[in-house]
Task: structure prediction
Amino acid sequence: MKTTNFTLKALSLTTALSLSLALAVPASAQSSTDTEVTEIVVTGARGVQRSKLDTLAPVDVVRKDALDAQGSTELAQALSRIAPALTFPRISAVDGTDSIRPASLRGLSPDQTLVLVNGKRRHTSALVNVGGSAGRGSVAVDLNAIPTAGLNTIEVLRDGASAQYGSDAIAGVLNLRLREAREGGGISATVGQYITKVEPANSSRDVKDGETYNLSGWIGLPLGQDGFLTVSGEARKRNPTSRGDINNTVTPARVTSRYGDPETESYGLFANAGLPLQNGWSLYGFASYQDLDSTSAAFSRPAASTGNVPSIHPNGFLPLINAKSKDYSATGGVKGQWGDWDSDYSIGWGRNELDYTVLNSVSPSYGTNSKTEFYAGNIQYDQVVFNADISRPFDIGLYGPLTLALGVEARHETYQIGRGEEQSYAFGGIAGASPGSQGFTGFQPSNEVDVNRDNVGAYANVSVEATEKLQFEVAARAEHYSDFGGNFSGKLSSRYDFNDAFAVRGSVSTGFRAPSLAQQYFTSTASVVNTNVTPSVVIETGLFPATHPASVALGATPLEAEKSLNYALGFVFRKGPFQLTVDGYDIRINDRIVLSDNTPTGDAEILALLEPYGVRSARFFTNGVTTQTTGVDIVANYRHLTDSLGRFDVSLALNSSNTVIKKYPQYNLSAIVTNPPALFPRNRQFILTNAAPENKATLSVDWTGGPLTVNTRTTYYGDVIDPSNNILNDVHSGEKTIFDASATYSFGNGTSVVLGADNLFDVYPDATPANINIGSGNGIGALAFTRFSPFGFNGRYVYLRLNHNW
Result:
């Protein structure tokens, strides 16, 4: 009901705004060159280019200067503050996800949004998010591996597009279009820091931390007579933040956690090149490299716990998890005219490697022989993609041409898990002590994986301008995967322009997302000692593939593709300097892949099922969830030029969505187990449906007067729930409004300086109530604020940036 009320209020507000501006501003008041920049969109329509207001589906075009007008130097963070339907929570205390955070479009899973670079599929991270945070169970693209200096624009297609692009495009598509320049360049240096007052439930303190230093730049170089080579790079160092509450079980009571952003150092390069050949053909290519070194904190271990060796850490310790990610990509191709056909042929490769090391820790079952630093293993994902795309217009006697686009895509993927050193996972022999490195247990030999698969897809896309007012598109795509079989997706889109000011558009489509190799094969288990038998034996507990005998004993079956049915309907209105788009959507997803909960260790019947496989407790990925997501996106823009007061740019963006579960997965154990446990309990359900705010609204007002530009942005976030299996223990972020502001002064010689603050008024999510033991045990006081907060929980961030372009 809250979502519906918010949507109605938003629609009423936007309609009133549009009518008042339509009446107040005559269409001839300003020239189009003064009021808008024509932005050509290539995402969402194969073989056809349109301006962003003439598309058949909603597309946000985010320009590079909009990313620069804010404090964050992370692409995903900056983009989420501009795109209305995108969220990027600053997750903490969930192992590798602290370092490679996922972004979400329209509240759906991060891996249900396809990411392209220059129209080519980008590889995902090797990381599968298995912790209890937003994006649980997903494998997403690391957007922060791409330097913002190398970008020109980002197109955010908010519509299902599997029929055009294949797997993953259920929620939409992000297409990152790279800068193309054969001359010029720029350099930017940014320093920033959190200056904040932290007020969790049991304490209060003033904090200055999270110092960030960022250096980025780009240069355009000539390649041959007419070609270009644009090289961009970025180096970033960020100190950690700490937002935990005091731990009152230690003396003196103090903060023993480091709950916040990890300490990171990263270096990235991106090169983009194009070289014209003869007869209208040209070569193109782009390549990237990123090196990320990130250290986050696990929960602290008290001195007297079974996870400690007191002679090594007499006062307890705080384990640190070091994740080192190396990301590579390279794509090359040729495009031109093949007879009457526009042709594009390319091959691309991408790889992500992630190595784990545990620092300041101990492997308790080795006692005084334990090390304090452990190599915990690695994971790696590789992708090779070949694309062939052709298109041409046909004159069939209608108002405009019929454009036919055809294409094929072949992809080869590999996934690997490598073991850690022995002490990181093994039982050292001391009874009653915990095996493995504390904070992050290393991958053991039984976890090692080396798998691969292939898939081939073919599509056809027909775009028709039937009359001066009516356009429509039809797309179909067939896919075949070597591991789970085939899929067919279709899409029908249409648009009718009643006049130059008003148009209606809509679409219906089917979509799919193939289970990732990581979801099919990721294995992470810990050793435990079974003292109920004589002699005692070491058994495993943790996450197993759905095809593992222990999972099969619990009723698991091989994973299948998720399938969706998308409906969209909206309108476009424009008059002079005012633009408005309103787009509603309904997305039903069947067979969603989710990560089950661990089986209870106190159920004798389940223990008997698992005992033959040396397993005490298990969880696994499974299909079986059906969800329905309904919502609306509203985007309004207005530009006003004055004779004496400069230019005002005003934009209002709202997203309101609601996801409900229509079908729940169940253990297939009724004939064997008397009282089967919940396969997908309440807390996991809420992570799937409520990890992003149901309502988000952003109002931006930018003013430019001579050399000075002032950017302001106010963002409202609806309440997000950090769930428990007991509703009384839920933690809420609360409804919050964040205000960001920056001022830029240009000196006229290509040099400018920016002073700004994100979250100027130092707003935090609601503190975790003192009576809720969300941080009990090793994590007492740690989770002082919910990690589901859509704007994080670090407080006010101030920054200074110096830019120079030539």
